[in-house]
Amino acid sequence: MKFVIDQKIFGKFPNLTVGIIAVQGIHNTEENAEVIDLLHQEERAVRERITIETLATHPKVMAWQEAYRAFGAKPKDHLSSVENLYRRVLGGAALRHINTFVDMYNYVSLKYMLPVGGEDLEKIKGDIQLTFAGPDGPPVLLLGDKDPRPPKEGEVIYRDGLGAICRRFNWREADRTKLTEETKNAVLVIEGLPPVSRNEIMGAVDELKNLIDHHCGGEASLFILDASNPTASW
After folding, report:
1. Which of the residues 121, 135, 154, 168 has the least number of beta carbons within 10 Å of its own beta carbon?
2. Please, what is the average pLDDT of the chain?
C-alpha cells in the first residue's frame, strides 16, 4: 500500500511535514487504564499551560487557521482537529474513552499540539492520497453525521479509491474508515506546518510508536513525508 502527498499540496503548503505510522497486527480491544490515565494527565497539563482566551492566537493553532483559509474554509466554522481537541479540554470536558488507539493519539495530539488522526487499513480501498478535492467527488459520511455530503471542490482531503476519508485536511474523518476495537491494521497521521519542525514531528511519531508497541503490539513502519519525499510504501 502507498500513502502519497500530491505535489500540488506542496505548491500551496511547501513546508508541510507529515509523519506516518503504518502498523499491522495490533491488539486494540480492552480499555487500557494506563493509557486513559496518561490522557487525563495531559488534559490537566494543557489547562495549566494555556487558556481558552489565548488558544486562537497560539502559533500552532494560527498555522492551521491560515491553512484552512488558503483553500477556502472558514476557521471559525471548521476548526482543525487539534484546535477542536484543545477547546474541548479547556472547556472542562474529560475526553471520553473511545478505544486505546484513539486514546493514545489524542494524548500525543495534546502533548505536541499537533493534528493526529488514524484510519483502519482493512477498510481502505487502494492507496491513500492527500490531495485537493475535485468537482465531482462522491458524498462521504463523516463521524457523527447522519447524511453523507461531498467535499467541496478545492478543499484538502485524504482519499482512497472510494472517496474522501478525511475532509478539510484534518477537520473531520469519515465513518467508513474509523478505528474501532476490532481494528487490526491501521495508519496514523501526524501533521505539521511551521513553526513546527521536522524534529518535532519525529518526536511525536516516535512517542506514539512506542505507546503502540507497549500497549497494542504489532509491527510498525515509520515515515516522515515532505516536499522532497512525498510517498510512503509498506
Report:
1. 135
2. 97
The span from the CA of 27 to the CA of 10, in Å, is 35
User: What DSSP line would sit under the chain, residue for residue?
Assistant: -EEEE-HHHHHH-TT-EEEEEEEES----S--HHHHHHHHHHHHHHHHH--HHHHTTSHHHHHHHHHHHHTT--TTTS--HHHHHHHHHHTTPPPPP--HHHHHHHHHHHHHT--EEEEEGGG--S-EEEEE--TTPPPBPBTT-SS-BPPPTT-EEEE-SSSEEEETTTTEEBSTT---TT--EEEEEEEE-TTS-HHHHHHHHHHHHHHHHHHT--EEEEEEEBTTB-EEE-
| Domain residue extents for the chain | 2-233
C-alpha cell at position 8? 500540488
CA-nearest of 90, 117, 113, 108 to 193 is 113
Q: Is the pLDDT score of 4 beyond 90?
A: yes
pTM exceeds 0.90: yes
